[in-house]
Fold this sequence. Notes:
alpha/beta, Arginase, Chain A, globular, two-stranded antiparallel sheet, 9 helices, eight-stranded parallel beta sheet
Amino acid sequence: MKTAIINSDSYEKHNTGDGHPEQPKRVIAIKEKLSKRKDLVWDKPSKVPEDILSMTHSKNYIKDLKNSFPQKGLKFLDGDTVVSPESKKAVFDAAGSTIKAIDGIENKQFHNAFCLARPPGHHAEKSKAMGFCCISNAGIATNYLISKYKYKKVACVDFDVHWGNGNYDVMRDNKNSLYISTHQYPFFPGGGTEKDKGDFNNSLNIPLPAGTNSEQYFNAFDRVLERLIKYKPDFLIFSAGFDAHKDDPLAQFQLCSKDFYEITKRTLVATNQFTNGKVISILEGGYDLNALAESANEHVNALIEFS
Length: 307
């Protein structure tokens, strides 16, 4: 079976305004790179069940979010998070891409999947949009896996350069999940120290300094692999941000494109015996277009190797 790319044209219509780093060109750049390949299947998002939305975010927040999209122009949900008239479909399609990815794997339509989606999700807390994010897409996926398919041990590995405070907020009280993050610290959004262990000791945060290079990163990443092997997840989610790349304008890590192949491959090698290869990946950050497209392609290379 193949690797699937879950994508929607709505992601390109989510307008965040001139000069905003989280722009439509991000998904376009990756799409152009991946669409040249013959070893992928392409599919579209599904609808997120309402009970999964309300399991992941507060009902009041979801209600307010649905009413927050403007009739025209731009609206700021916070200082960084901008929506426009066509953003609503993109926001819910991004969350819905994880539903399609999971159902496709469970129904044996494909082996694993990369959700080529925007806006990203890992900063969206239970009751707050933040940092370009409106819905915790990885949180939606986690709750769907546990609720619909009765998984008991869902692991989320977040290698975005920023701490996924939203993923942490959504998953911290879920005893059937493990959230792991490597990230630059101190840095936006704050938090993400080793003290943030979750309510059930179900989170591992590995803060690393600005300037972290490939060797230093992979030395630290061994801790991620050790924790995963100890946890024995039955399903794996990647919150796949590519802004730890040395060319990224919003951060100061020094990884190269090929490192994202290694991050992915090492994680899959460590977990495949437990997950039987069941893995979905969700696009988070990455703001240099060339670096983003290259890095995402390397990530997909590793997914394909294990499909």
